[in-house]
Amino acid sequence: MVKKVLKFGGTSVGTIERIQHVANIIKKEHSEKNKVIAVVSAMSGKTNELLKLSNEIAEDFNKRELDVLLSSGEQVTCALLSGALTRLNIKSKSFMNWQIPILTEGDHSNARIINIHVEKINDYLNNNGVAIVPGFQGISKNGDITTIGRGGSDATAVAIAKIFNAECCEIYTDVDGVFSTDPNKIPVAKKIDKISYDEMLELSSLGAKVMQSSAVQTAMMYDIPLEVKSTFTERKGTKIFSQENIDYTKSVTGVAYSKDDAKITVKEVEDKPGVAANMFEPLSKAQVNVDMVIQNISSDQKTTDITFTVKRDDISKTKQILKESTSINYKEIISNEKVAKVSIVGAGMVSTPGVTYKMFRGLSDENINILAISTSEIKLSVIIDEENTLKAVKKLHTIFDLD
Amino acid sequence: MVKKVLKFGGTSVGTIERIQHVANIIKKEHSEKNKVIAVVSAMSGKTNELLKLSNEIAEDFNKRELDVLLSSGEQVTCALLSGALTRLNIKSKSFMNWQIPILTEGDHSNARIINIHVEKINDYLNNNGVAIVPGFQGISKNGDITTIGRGGSDATAVAIAKIFNAECCEIYTDVDGVFSTDPNKIPVAKKIDKISYDEMLELSSLGAKVMQSSAVQTAMMYDIPLEVKSTFTERKGTKIFSQENIDYTKSVTGVAYSKDDAKITVKEVEDKPGVAANMFEPLSKAQVNVDMVIQNISSDQKTTDITFTVKRDDISKTKQILKESTSINYKEIISNEKVAKVSIVGAGMVSTPGVTYKMFRGLSDENINILAISTSEIKLSVIIDEENTLKAVKKLHTIFDLD
Questions:
Q1: Under 8 Å CB-to-CB from B214, ≥6 apart: which residues?
Q2: The domain containing residue A33 runs over which residues?
Q3: Complex ipTM tops 0.90
Q4: Distance from CA of A172 to the nearest CA of B (A)
Q5: What is the pTM of this model?
Q6: What's the total number of domains in chain B?
Q7: Is the Cβ of B80 closer than 8 Å to some Cβ of chain A?
């Protein structure tokens, strides 16, 4: 008898037929004597539909009430799934955020789960019932409904797996698992059987939208084995666990890309100590996340050009802050939103010499200009012109033997 | 400063524009320094949409989960209305069934409100906030979500008015008030300015679907003044209060009709004492509500025909029970679903002689045959062929000076 958390995303519960299919998956687990806690998202499209209603009233809709509004989506799925299980003669019950309760702290729409009471659900599991829990939500200390950000159902599932000491946490979704790159764009992409938390983290934060990063982080912190698998096929998914349990035969595990970065160049900044600090301090205070930074000495040797990347959403805020800053002098600010970040990720990179060279050579062979570079132990990212994205991803996928 | 409960039905909050309009009505009350508790229904169509989803899974959908499912509808309206008030700079907050809490007892989908905690909402009202409360729902002693039956938002509003000692309870709806008969079918129908609880009760239980009967009953029991009025016009509505506060100038206040009755005749029942008791006892046990009863002596004088009316929904159940009953002998059972109940209602009837004669004469003048009759102090109902319904209603409306 194994305690399992099964999480079903929006597309997995997007229609009544799919909810009935999910009920059958749970029935199978239940018939194998597993104790099942199912965490569910809102039916696909539902959260956007509710958001649209709130936007028709106000773009800056009351934050507390937005959480009341959005949390109703998962409530609907919970009830329907529990009803579908009843129909299959499986004992089951929905547990709302306040019934459990799932305690959170932090701002509305961006809260964090800090505790989940286990008594009621454990009693129910011990009495052979299946517990259905809404993802993405909780309550605050004051008893207000909170939500934990888009994709937050993954975080709920991992938090529940941790607090209930579940043996594993299975993330059911609409793809077969984690791929070596985006299978929709690059047909030779391959499903990865095993991947480490670190690699998964780099991939999920880099645009491979299979799992929410903070959920992977929590799983890593508490060493909770994850499996990402398809709701719609019987195929094996991708297992995610600690690096030490994986034998690396390849230096690179996957190639990710994202198109939500923008590049900003501040031209002819006075070249003296502290100038970068002066430039980035107000950005940091304004919660603008600066990713890569490059500093060039300009021709006159008295000034320098500083280039950096930020999220596209932050670009006008960034420019505004730089313009208002009195502590730096510069000639002009140039921005480019037509850039993409392409990254190779692999825990095997650190032990394989020449990966960096091989990447740069490969891009150069395709006449792709590198605009910025950043590295970590298991990742190497470059900024390139957006139009070259797929060409770059394909090339890297091939030269690192992932096809 | 007056404490008011304002209840907004499904059509009143059926679109974002209408929710914004409702927010303006509340803003006006708030600006007049009234303390406002708004009770809201689900957006029109929403409850049926959710019911349809549950029906696709199972017609006998898990009762506990059905309440979880349906209660989400009012949650959505609460959040949207509170957000709309924020947009108008009115301080407001939604209070969910479990946050207040609204305590209920009884079966799922048919619970009764037994208590509502007042502290949180009173504090909020005293701090100049508008409290938004979901109608139709509560929680059980065990902390499960319950609902209190279709139309239950009226009951919530009246219960809140009672427990919070509100000065009045205004029921906002999509009609101008209570009419002397159905204004959609009988254009000469007139809005009634004042009506007693008793009359309203007879009208609402007889098919004038303006307010839920049990809510009117509660208001009568605790003498809570009600006003039914339109969300969409500025016209005065219908005030509902105790009979002693009304001067009756007319014997009849309104003419109601309904088409959900059916007539059953049991032919040639052995005519001996106790036969009616034997016939109706098993029906009563099976919760079949028998309305009017007529007993005729048949030609042979040893047997009798018993005719009675039940709700159409109960007709097959009723026949089944009679067939299975071993304590009565009869020749055959004839049923007729093509009947209608037409009623005149008026607290002034009791003091006006000849009302009964006038009604029968009027129907006879139109060649309408009376199939059954029942009376109370303030009501006189007849069963007639369904096809004559409107003709009868029009005639009665005219002869009792209501046009």
A1: B155
A2: 3-174
A3: no
A4: 21
A5: 0.85
A6: 1
A7: yes
